[in-house]
Design goal:
Elements lengths: L1 H12 L8 H21 L7 H7 L3 H26 L10 H8 L7 H32 L4 H15 L3 H5 L2 H13 L6 E5 L4 E2 L5 E2 L4 E4 L1 H5 L15 H6 L30 H18 E5 L7 E3 L2 E3 L6 E5 L2
Family: Belongs to the cytochrome P450 family.
GO molecular function: heme binding; iron ion binding; monooxygenase activity; oxidoreductase activity, acting on paired donors, with incorporation or reduction of molecular oxygen
Cofactor: heme
């Protein structure tokens, strides 16, 4: 699934044909691990040695140079066209790399800086969306009777509006299914971790000393009966039913955060990429249900946990059958 999400995401980030370059996709999948492992390693050093450790004892610098080799020539060619034709030219790319190039100033126009931005956005996009979609796919494969309602909805809106943003927005059942999968599993049992920069006392008297880490207990909250009826039961149409109530049309969309639904965080620092992620996941799920019948060989495997992280069983297998 990381390969699929990598290709889908980079169709928007850097466009064709680079989004289909296997080595480039593997770089972006690996870059996240490079950064996470590198950060853990750097944390073992005293502050004055951290820059040295990051430069010489992690694989991140090599990954960045690998990224420059992949995207550098594309950036150079586009700069040549921008200088030759101005702001617009025939077949000008409409992707994130070009958006960045159109607005970058000063040092941000340098090839390495643009490559760093693309690698960073991939860092945020690939593993999170892969994790979320795999959870949903396994649940659907274990309950194939839920395919038909989503298939009928997706086929209807696509036949009328095509594969467009408008069509994606009208896929309420698909939206509800994916949101319920995030409610049940999400990326982990805690979220919105913050470092207290100074001593702080909450309104209920809870005291947080400077230097403490504070998180929201996403897992327990998402399965709390106070907020969700039959909270421990997966209800694929939970949120579409809520949206049908008067005045609730937009409140329970996948991208809508609240103090009771925090897979994307909440407040000022809620995930800014959640709109892209939701459209991507909905388009992928719609494509699956329109084109395939799926099922598991056996029961739904329990998600795995490591520290606070929740992730699908990596050994689980889904059977696909192309529809006639």
């Amino acid at each position: 699934m990381m390969q699929v999400v990598g290709r889908v995401s980079n169709r928007v980030f850097v466009g064709l044909p680079k989004c289909r370059d296997q080595d480039y996709i593997e770089l972006n999948v690996k870059f996240t691990l490079d950064v996470v492992i590198g950060a853990l390693f750097i944390s073992l050093f005293p502050d004055f040695l951290k820059p040295f450790a990051g430069r010489y004892f992690t694989t991140v610098p090599k990954s960045i140079e690998r990224g420059v080799k992949h995207i550098g020539p594309i950036i150079s060619e586009r700069y040549e066209n921008m200088e030759k034709y101005g702001d617009n030219w025939e077949d000008k790319p409409n992707d994130m790399l070009q958006w960045l190039m159109d607005t970058a100033e000063g040092e941000e126009r340098e090839i390495r800086a643009l490559v760093m931005r693309i690698l960073t956005i991939n860092f945020a996009a690939i593993h999170t969306s892969s994790n979320s979609f795999t959870h949903a796919l396994l649940i659907l494969a274990a309950n194939p009777e839920w395919v038909k309602p989503m298939r009928e909805e997706a086929e209807e809106v696509v036949s009328r509006d095509g594969w467009s943003k408008v069509a994606i927005q009208k896929m309420r059942r698909v939206d509800s299914f994916l949101k319920e999968a995030q409610r049940m599993f999400g990326l982990g049992d805690i979220t919105m971790t913050r470092l207290a920069m100074q001593d702080f006392t909450f309104s209920d008297g809870t005291f947080v000393p400077k230097g403490s880490l504070v998180s929201a207990a996403a897992g327990p909250m998402h399965q709390d009966e106070e907020f969700y009826e039959d909270a421990e039961i997966f209800n694929p149409w939970r949120f579409v039913n809520m949206r049908e109530e008067e005045g609730e049309g937009t409140k329970h969309q996948m991208v809508t955060t609240s103090s009771e639904y925090v897979p994307f965080g909440h407040g000022r620092h809620a995930c800014p990429g959640r709109f892209f992620a939701a459209n991507e996941l909905k388009a992928m799920m719609a494509h699956v249900v329109i084109n395939y019948d799926i099922k598991l060989e056996g029961d739904l495997p329990e998600p795995k946990r490591w520290a606070q992280a929740v992730f699908p069983d990596p050994k689980a297998e889904v059977m696909f059958k192309k529809r006639e």
